[in-house]
Structures are given as structure tokens and as C-alpha cells.
Amino acid sequence: MITQVNSSVESLTLRINGKDVSCRAGDTVLQAVRDNGMELPTLCWLEGLTVWGGCRLCMVEIAGSPKLHAACATACQEGMEVQTNSDRLHRYRRMIVELLLAERNHICSVCVSNGHCELQSLAQKLGIDHVRFAYRNPQLEVDNSHDRMRLDHNRCILCTRCVRVCAEVEGARTKDIKGRGVLAAVIHDLDQPWGESETCTSCGKCVNVCPTGALTHRGVAVGEMTKKLSFLPYLTLMREANP
Amino acid sequence: MNRTITIEGVTRIEGHACITIQLDEAGKVADAQFHVTQFRGFEKFVEGRPLTEMPAIMARICGICPVSHLMASSKACDDLLAVEIPPNAARLRRIMNLAQLVQSHALSFFHLSSPDLIFGMDGDPAKRNIFGLIQDHPDFARDGIMLRKFGQDIIGLLGGKKIHPAWTVPGGVNAPLTQEHRDQIASMIPDALARALRAAEYFQRVRDCYPAEVDDFANFPTMFVGLVSADRLLEHYDGTLLFSDEHGAPVAELREPRGYASLIAEAVEKHSFLKSPYFRPRGYPHGIYRVGPLARLVLAEGCGTPLADRELDIFRQRLGRAPQSSFHYHWARLIEIIYGIEMLQRLLEHPDILSEHVRARARPNKLEGVGISEAPRGTLIHHYRIDENGLMRWANLIIATGNNNLAMNRGVLQVARRFVDGNRLQEGMLNRVEAVIRCFDPCLSCSTHALGQMPLRIELLTAQGEVCDALQRQD
Ligand code: SF4
Ligand code: SF4
Ligand code: FES
Prior knowledge:
The structure holds 2 protein chains of 2 kinds. In chain A, 24% of the residues lie in helices and 16% in strands. By secondary structure, chain A is an alpha+beta fold. Chain A folds into 2 domains: 11-85, Ubiquitin-like (UB roll); 108-117 and 138-226, Alpha-Beta Plaits (2-Layer Sandwich), CATH 3.30.70. Chain A is globular and about 55 Å long. The two termini of chain A are 18 Å apart. The model of chain A has no long low-confidence stretch (mean pLDDT 93). Chain B is of the alpha+beta class. In chain B, 42% of the residues lie in helices and 18% in strands. Mean pLDDT of chain B is 86; it is low at 11-15 and 445-457.
């Protein structure tokens, strides 16, 4: 592997959780946090896709600002003071995940992704053993019309990873989001059954980037769906190497 | 004064129900009903789900016999895929099903019913339970606990989880048996077999102490229904569904599960959410039949394993080919425990048992599928319809306990008539009413798909419906 040391890249110094760290100019706070060995939960962010900033799990406190900032969508600045762990942040993160769980129908014990789900493991990490909000229990469909893949709206958290990977990496732009708020939903082409989509190349990238049991292969039974994400950094690297 | 006694939340049966006993003016029993008053609605719940999730979802109907639902559901799904699963997948499913049989029967016999048999139906209720058993008969209690553990450990080794294993899937199972696990299970067999044989021997001492109970514990002629193998031996996983008359003579057989509705119809009664299936050609309620260990032993020519067959011989010498009293379910259960352990050994010794070809892959190929298997408590039928995309559109479940519903009802009335005197109500009388239900080992949470628990409550109601006396128990 060839490592290019580019000394012309400006570096910045900032404080994260009271620790002085440095990063490259242009890095996001999320990168700075993770590059320095600290943890920050994310759901909508995925290395290799554009930033979405929708799930708000990566929120941090920045000294001098009363608001919370999404670390994945905030650029580092010289002298910034960042706090990634506070009671307030923990409270909000917990609430976000609980709301995600309450919004649709997540029944982990009978979910194909049980045991291999980013939402589930995040909930476990945050110590969520019950949800304080009333479940909405919406009546949602399973789109089983595609020959090899399935979309279960009951498990979708609208992170748009599938939409972005489809547009940005595969270039098919099959997937999109319709509606607003709780009525929002992933669609294919002009809101057709997935199996009738003319643009879908059946590449399966969306299935692999989906953090939950929403996008899966067909024919998998409970707990059998595992996702392979390794293709994404690889493709990104290849593209960057051969622009 | 007309009074009604209601026993709610029958104790020491798995799940919850209640019994109402209607007394006449003289305080004698006029009528009795066994009802199940809750409904869980799994049939509705699964609508729209992909069929591949069905076994795991259905296993959640019941925490007591998840494996039985896994089997029936997987078989219904195999039918929807229109595949013949690899022979070793069938063997492995059988192993899990037998492990479930052993552990469930151990629970029913040792934990739930043997306190009555050992301490007597009128024994001190404080003692007449598994804890009293552990205190006074520690070895016997230990045998029960270890047999239960034996079955559960096997299920755990195969499925990775003792409860709700997701290992059985449409088309087979999702992981083969490892040599290590095979050896581990095989090493547990001699001990389990010794315990089962000891229990059967112990049972001989108490089985003759209850002539009155034998006489009146759901002792009446009914048909019997259950699976038998191709050579008409005991069978729990696959085979022909055989219907016999009260003497055990075959009257109908079902080789193709999808035709079950031509032989079984379901009546719905006002007082209960539990449906009452009956043999369609004989009509309702004459088509009353029994399922479960007793029925299976009546229907099969033999067990097909030496030690169980030896015990079955004694059973038949003493009770005849088709015993009518449901009291004998207990003995039948013990014989099936022995059979289960012997059969497990036989399966483990099969030369291909470690074969890794354990799953057939296919798309849904039929829109309707039926799976029939034998749960420990009797015949279990899962019937599904799906759409072209493989999503569930409709389900009907005929559950083992439901199959025995008519017989349990009639049994409750018989026992109540014989033992309950409304003028001097005693605990032992009501215990017998419950004990007859326990003979059938009903699993009510599953048969009603009912969620939640009810306390045990016995109510005496006047003709006007007012409570004039009540006994309450919590479990
Ligand atoms: S998608 Fe994840 S969180 Fe949702 S039910 Fe499935 S396993 Fe649970
Ligand atoms: S289908 Fe999956 S990847 Fe797409 S928006 Fe929903 S949760 Fe995210
Ligand atoms: S990961 Fe930053 S908003 Fe979702």
C-alpha cells in the first residue's frame, strides 16, 4: 500500500472531551472523533456515501453554541471544543432510538436481521430495555415483488443509505423517498413495486448498506440476514484512485 | 338454590383457563364447562409477513412447546415451497421434535401431575406440588428435572437457544449437526434412559391407587386421532394421520395433509375461544375424538423401539388395546418418554446424521400449504395461504389442545358429577376437576393463542348469577 504524505494539508487543533487532538482541515467532527479513537454512534452516515445528517445520533455539544450539532455534517474548526458524551446527549440519543423503534414495527425476535442489525445493537449499547413512547403500530407493506430482494417497510428507519448508494455508487437512481414525516417511505422509480422497476439493476448494494432488516435478500429466515459492507470502501477507493 | 362454581386459571396446567360448574337446587352438579376466555389472534398477526419468517413467528405462539409449532409451520412452508427436504434435515428435525417430546412429557408428568399421584388427590395442597415432591421424593423429582433438562439441552445444542430456536427453516434446517454435539447428546442418553425407566417402575406403585379416578377421569368412548408411520408405528413428525373408532380400529386416514378439512371440522362455542374440532363424517358432537400420547398408543401397532415396546406390552395387557380412561394419558406419556430417548439414540447413530446437506432452497411454488405434526399433547395442524409474492394471506391453526377440547369438556363434567358436592365444597374435589384437565396436558396459552394470565378462581354462583362463594388461588 502506498501512503502519500501530503505536508501541504493544513492541520487543525481542537479539544474533544477535554483532550487536545489534531485533524486535517476539512475533516468532519465525526472523523476527528473516530480518528482519535473515540466512539460516536451513527446510523445514516456511511463511509463512501454523501453526508445526509438525518438521524441525529451523532450529535455533539460544541462550546459556545447552545444547539447540538450533527458531527457527521459539521466541519472541524481551529480551537473548537467538542463534547461527545454528556447526560444531555445520552438522553437525546436514547430518545431518538426509542422513537425509531416506536415509529414502525420492530419485532427483533422474529426479524430476519435479529442479531445482525445496527439499530438493534445501538439500542443494546444505549441500554434501551424498553420504549417509553407509545408504539404507532402502523400498517405497512412488505414489498416482496423483486425476484431476489425484499423491502419490509416495517423495519425501515428512513436513513436513506439505500437511496444514496443506489444513486451515488450504482448510478441507477432507482430508489427515492416519498412523502413527509411519518408518511415518508422508500419507493422505486415512480412508486412502483420493486419487481416492476425498470431502472433497478439488481446489484444488491442497497440491501448491504441498509442498517436494519428493511432491505434483505429473499428466502432468508429469522436471524439469517447478514450484511456485507466491505464492497463500499473498496469501490470508493477504486474510484478515487482512478477518477 | 342453583349455583355455579367457576374455577378460573386452572393451576398446574400450562397456560390459563377457567372451569364453571353449575349446581342444581340440591347442590349437585348439573353442568360443567371448561372455557378459555382469551384470544391471541396469531392467525391475524401473520398476515402480510413473508413465509420464510413463519416458523420463527409461530414458535412464539407458545413458550412451552415452541418446537412443535416450528415443526408444523416448517412443514407447511415446505409444502408452500413444494420441496422434499433433504433426508438428513428431516432426521435433524425429528431429533429436535423428540427432544421436545421428552422434555414436555417430563414437565407434564413429574412437575404437574405426579404431585397428585404421589400425595393423593386430597393431599395437602401446600405439599401437593413440585416443591413438596423435591422435599419428600428427591430422587423422583430429580429424575423429572433431569429428563426435562435432557430434552432442553438437546434443543439448545441444535437450535442455539432453548426457547424459540430459529434453526428450523422452510426447506430444512439452517445448520447441520456437528460431531461434537452428536457425541455430547449421545453421551447423555444412557442416564436419561435410566431415569425414564425408573420413573416407569415407580409409576407402577401408584397407578393402581386411583380406581375412582380411572373410572371417571374422562372415561368414555371417543375416536382417536394421531400420526402413524408407514408401517403403523408410533410417529411424531411425519406420516399418515389416522382416525380410529373407540376400539382403535381405523376408520379413515389422511395421507395428504392438505385434505384435512374433509375429515376435521371445527365448531365454535359461545363460552370459549378454543375451537372444538370434530371428525366431520360423524358430525358434531358425535365426532368427538382424542389426541395425544394415549391416542397415539392406541393408533400405533407398536412403538418400534425395544424398551418402549416392552412397557407398551404391559400397558396393553392391563388396559387392553384402546383404554378409554384419560387417566391413562400419564402412563402413555411415560412410555413415550422411553420411546423418545431410544429413538433419539437410533437417529444419532444413523450413518448420515452429520451430513451437511440439510436445506432445500426454493421459491414459493404453491399458494396453499399444510403441515401436520404431533406435538407432545397431540396433533397440530398449520394451514397457510400466501400470495404470488410469498406473503402470508391467511392462516388456520388447529392446535393439539383444541383437538382435545370436546373430550376435556366432557371429562370435566364427568369428574364434577362424581366428585363435586356443592353443599360441602372441598379443595380435593376441585383439584380433581383440574387433574382431569391435566391428564390432557393442555397448553392453553397456545391453544387460544392467549396472552396474559388469570388467577385461579373458583366461583359459586346462585341461580340469579350472584357469587355466593369463591375460592381464589394465585399461581
Ligand atoms: S430491523 Fe433491527 S431493530 Fe428492527 S426489528 Fe429488525 S433487528 Fe430489530
Ligand atoms: S430501506 Fe434500509 S437503507 Fe433504505 S432508508 Fe430504510 S432503513 Fe435506510
Ligand atoms: S450519522 Fe450524523 S446525522 Fe445520522
